[in-house]
Design brief:
five-stranded antiparallel beta sheet; 36% helix; Alpha-Beta Plaits; Rossmann fold; alpha/beta; 9 helices; six-stranded parallel beta sheet
């Protein structure tokens, strides 16, 4: 099971720690604020009150088996830099560091941060995308040109297999998974539903009404799928 360290339990760090914990991962949460540590201790694997800018104090926490670390401190630039540096000195990879400005991000990159997170910018883009493209329920920006999105299956796709649709050839995207709701009527007449996910679907897998597709591709090709989804 993967283990994560979250350093800095502000709104961002606390949200990350809580999300990872809900997903079943082991989480070590660190902050020098006792009250924040007490709150996090209710849902994380381990919560420690420590000043992570102190390299020796950080070493004593014991982060040898950590698979990734998230530095949730952004406004205190000096602290975010020192903590990122300390984590890299401990040999932890990858380290994700929060930044408020591009200048701060460049500094963090210089000292070894594997990825810079701009929470406000990324959330703003996500909200804007949901406003202009309501048919897209979830998306992850993988690079400046490629995106992973979840879209409603276009009506044009219904009743056909992926092989018949030739999605990659015609539209330049790959269907990574199909999400489908399966309904079941119990003996007492109650109707229940559960979600079935078809991972890495093959050419014989078909699309039915109500399916959602997890699609990977260049932004320009994702736009083609988005337009198909809009067609009635």
């Amino acid at each position: 099971m993967k283990q994560f360290a979250v350093i800095g339990l502000g709104r961002f760090g606390m949200a990350v720690a809580q999300y990872l914990s809900k997903k079943g991962f082991q989480v070590v949460a660190l902050d020098k604020d006792k009250k924040k540590v007490e709150i996090a201790s209710e849902f994380v694997t381990k919560a420690v009150e420590v000043d992570a800018t102190d390299e020796e104090a950080l070493k004593e926490v014991g982060l040898k088996n950590i698979d990734a670390a998230i530095v949730g401190i952004g406004k205190n630039v000096e602290a975010s830099i020192l903590i990122t540096l300390n984590l890299k000195e401990l040999g932890i990879t990858p380290v994700f560091s929060k930044a408020f400005t591009t200048l701060q991000g460049k500094v963090l990159e210089k000292i070894g941060a594997d990825r810079i997170i701009y929470p406000e910018k990324e959330m703003g883009e996500k909200i804007a995308e949901s406003l202009v493209s309501p048919e897209i329920s979830e998306y992850i920006k993988l690079s400046t040109t490629h995106t992973l999105v979840e879209v409603e299956a276009p009506r044009l796709f219904e009743g056909k297999t992926l092989g018949e649709l030739e999605v990659h050839t015609k539209y330049g995207v790959q269907v990574i998974a199909i999400k489908r709701k399966i309904t079941h009527t119990e003996k007492n007449g109650k109707i229940t539903s559960k979600e079935k996910i078809i991972i890495a679907p093959g050419p014989m897998d078909g699309i039915i009404m109500g399916d959602k597709l997890l699609v990977l591709g260049e932004d320009k090709n994702i736009e083609k799928i988005r337009k198909l989804t809009n067609q009635k």
